Amino acid sequence: MPQADRAVLESEQYKTTQGRRLHLYAQGEEIPLVPQGVWQVCRGLVQLSTYCQNGEEVWLGWVEPSAFFGRWFSLLKSYQAIALSDVHLMWFSQEEISTSGHLSQLVLPQMVRRIGHTEALLAISGQRRVEDRLQQLLLLMKREIGHPVTEGTRIRVRLTHQNLANAVGTTRVTITRLLGKLKSEGAITFDGDRHIILRHDSFTSVSDW
Fold first, then answer.
1. Contact, 62 vs 120, CB < 8 A?
2. Is pLDDT of 16 > 50?
3. pTM over 0.90
4. Quick one: which of 82, 146, 165, 199 is 20 to 30 A from 136 by CA?
5. 106: CB partners within 8 A, 6+ apart
6. Is the C-alpha dihedral spanning 141, 143, 146, 148 positive or negative?
7. What percent of the chain has pLDDT over 90?
C-alpha cells in the first residue's frame, strides 16, 4: 500500500478508535467470526482460509492493518481467520457500519483492495508449475507486505512451509524442496527470525502483476 494512502487510513482509523476496546490475539490463534459484524486489524497480519470437502486448507489471502474482515463479507460456509502474527483488532457491528457513512467510507476501499488480492491469488493458482506459483506468490508478498532491508526485501511475517503450501496448492515437502532450491540459487535467504528475504532482482524473468 502506498505510504500516503496508509497514512490517511491510519488517521481515519484513529477517529473511530477512541473509547473502543482492542482485542488481542497471539500468533497462531484462531479469531472468532460471527455474521453480525466485522473485525478491523490495527496491528499485525491475519490469514484467511477455507477448507475443501477433502479437508485440505485453501489460503484466501491475508489482511493488513486498517483493513476489515469477517464472515459478513464472504459467501463461503467454511471460513477461518488465523493470526499470522500477534494482532490487535477492533470489532464493529453490522448495524454500526450500515448506519454510519463514515465507517462505510472506510470499509469500501478496503473491500476493493481485498478483491484485488483475490484476483491476484486466482491468477497465481492458474499457473501450471508449482515453482511458478510459489515465485508469483513471493513477488505478490514482496509488493504488498515487504520491507526493504540491505539484502533485498523482507516479508514482514514469518510464514511456515505449510502456510505457503496451502497458498499455492501443494505439499509442505514440495515447498521445503523449492525453498531450498531458491536459497541455493541465491534468490532468497532467511533472517535470524526465519523471515524470507527476497534478494535484489529475484525472479526478474517472472511477470509481476
1. no
2. no
3. no
4. 82
5. 9, 12, 13, 16, 68
6. positive
7. 42
Instruction: Give the pLDDT confidence score for residue 205 in this predicted structure.
Output: 59
Question: Mapped to the 3 state alphabet, what secondary structure does the chain carry?
Answer: CCHHHHHHHHHHHHHHHCCCCCEEECCCCECCCCCCEEEEEEECCEEEEEECCCCCEEEEEEECCCCEECHHHCCCCCCEEEECCCEEEEEEEHHHHHHCHHHHHHHHHHHHHHHHHHHHHHHHHCCCCHHHHHHHHHHHHHHHHEEEECCEEEECCCCCHHHHHHHHCCCHHHHHHHHHHHHHCCCEEECCCCCEEEECCCCCCCCCC
| Residue that wins the pLDDT comparison between 12 and 202 | 202
- Output the pLDDT for position 69: 92
Q: Which of the residue ranges 22-26, 111-115, 195-199 would you say has the lowest mean pLDDT?
A: 111-115
How far is the C-alpha of 150 from the C-alpha of 161, rounded, in Å?
Answer: 24
